[in-house]
Amino acid sequence: MDTQAPTQNILQRLYLGAAAWLHSWWRLLHFAVLMFSMALTPSSYARNKRPVLAHHLVADTAPNLAWYGVLSALVSLVLIRIVVVTSQSYGLSRFALEMVVRVLVLELIPLTAAAFVALRTTLPAGLEFAQRRGSGAATIDELHREFFPRVAAGIFSVWMLAAVSCVTTLILAYLSLYGFTPWALTGYTRVVGQVFNPAVTLILVLKIVFFSFAVGLIPMASSFYAGRSKVSNGLSDMVRLFAVMLLIEVASLMGNYY
């Protein structure tokens, strides 16, 4: 029985799949370079382009900030209470604050903020925009008018949600542990400062920045290219986005704890 033909078919499929995978990542890199070059170009912030940019920044950030602020505050209160009660039951109350800061502020909030913006705004907006555009190459004016404001809004939304939620969680942690008293503020700031050493702070900032780039760029990259199935683009964008976010999270964990 000749097995050469099936083997060649398998190798050919593997080759075509690997080539398509590399090509999709190359196109994403090309789109990212275009967007970053526009971000550094003064004409992208000209007077006639500011209203569109401002509209997308507000429309994509304000609703997410309201919903995510409430949800993250409720979840943070529950998790803080769980950590405090568990620490007290094991006689580790002095480590409760550090655990809250590390688990919530360093790990959960940046990841959930990026996922919230992706699922609520950038992925649906990218798919809808791709279906509305149809086929055809994008012009320079369309890049400035349509693509760049949407990408910038997705990036800015992740920054705002992560920053506001981190500050809110730190305030809720203080109130949950010490109540409405200013006398514990010195010890609280000392513990938080020990957690946020320069290396950890840099890793947190870089993680939020890379999360925001992934959330802002990946859903809009497919809309830049023509001749693709919109449904498959939406599914592949979701898989690619969360794969990149997982890699960023793993890299941050290795930087913080190894």
From TrEMBL:
User: Per its UniProt record, what Pfam families does this chain match?
Assistant: MlaE
Asked whether the keyword Membrane is assigned, the reply is: yes
- Keyword entries, A-Z: Membrane, Transmembrane, Transmembrane helix
CC terms in the record's Gene Ontology section: ATP-binding cassette (ABC) transporter complex
From the record, give the transmembrane residue ranges. 65-84, 104-123, 151-175, 195-218, 239-257
What protein name is recorded for this chain?
A: ABC transporter permease
- State the species of origin: Duganella rivi
Upper classification of the source organism reads: Bacteria, Pseudomonadati, Pseudomonadota, Betaproteobacteria, Burkholderiales
